[in-house]
TrEMBL record:
Name assigned to this protein: Tetraspanin
Biased composition (Acidic residues): 7-23
Principal place of residence: membrane
UniProt cross-references to PANTHER family, sorted A to Z: TETRASPANIN (PTHR19282), TETRASPANIN 26A, ISOFORM B-RELATED (PTHR19282:SF431)
Length: 274
């Protein structure tokens, strides 16, 4: 009997220890859940001061508007570039995309600031709606970018083939090729041998040496890289830049929607008529 009682006492003690341990674990978990719940609740837009929400909203949209205007100015300047380099390198597509993004960003941001100043609920709803659509377009474009890039490269390759044979006959083609080769430090489509293949002398714009050595052009002093490869690398870097810009715009759009909803909820009832 004593041995049995001792065994039962040990089991009871063990269960007591396990029970205390499990209860302590549960209490720790409950505390963590409660902590994160309080933290999330404190981060809610409802708990932010009214002035803080409005100030943040105006700051984000002012930055977006200024960035959009700067993008529009730079894009128009690049599209109006008289060097005609864009015709061969395919940068026109990416510059056009930047132009559209800039116009959209500046317009919608201005709409958001105006709706806040005038406290127009319908305009704020329109602002939030267009920002939501824009986020969807960004998501769709990121999926389609890979296949579109391959098509752009193929089109550039075909344009180079069609224009290289007109190098001596059309002035804009001559200027485009010369500017492209000097800008990208390349020669021909795949190499300087392309000029020989099409029975033309290697242009001086292919020269990788000083002007004194460019009087008589040859493969030895021409740029080694072809313009198709250089264009591919340049466009790839442009896509990386666009990806970074897209991420930043997505973050700004998400923040704009978040604070736009907060501003909309804080409009006075007397000014709901918009």
């Amino acid at each position: 009997m004593r041995r049995g009682d001792s065994i039962n006492d040990e089991e009871t003690d063990t269960e007591g220890i396990d029970g205390d341990y499990s209860e302590s674990e549960e209490s720790v978990v409950d505390k963590k859940i409660g902590f994160f719940g309080i933290l999330f609740n404190n981060l809610s837009i409802k708990n932010l001061p009214k002035k803080c929400v409005k100030f943040t909203f105006i700051t984000i949209n002012t930055m977006t508007c200024l960035l959009g205007i700067s993008t529009v100015v730079i894009s128009i300047w690049m599209l109006a570039d008289t060097t005609l380099t864009l015709r061969l390198t395919g940068q026109k597509l990416f510059v056009t995309i930047l132009l559209i993004i800039g116009v959209f960003g500046a317009s919608i941001s201005s709409l958001g600031i105006y709706s806040l100043i005038k406290q127009k609920k319908k305009l704020m709803s329109t602002y939030i709606f267009f920002h939501s659509i824009f986020l969807g377009i960004i998501f769709f474009s990121s999926i389609m970018s890979a296949s579109m890039f391959d098509r752009v490269i193929e089109k550039i390759h075909q344009d180079m083939k069609n224009t290289i044979i007109k190098y001596r006959s059309l002035d804009w083609v001559t200027e485009a090729w010369d500017n492209t080769q000097q800008y990208l430090k390349c020669c021909g489509i795949k190499s300087s041998n392309d000029w020989t293949y099409y029975r033309m002398e290697i242009p001086q714009s292919c020269c990788s040496k000083s002007i004194e050595h460019c009087l008589e052009m040859s493969d030895l002093i021409a740029f080694e890289s072809g313009c198709l490869k250089s264009t591919y690398l340049m466009l790839r870097s442009n896509i990386d830049m666009l990806a970074i810009v897209t991420i930043l715009i997505s973050i700004l759009s998400g923040a704009s929607i978040f604070f736009g909803l907060g501003v909309k909820k804080r409009f006075k009832v007397s000014r709901y008529v918009g």
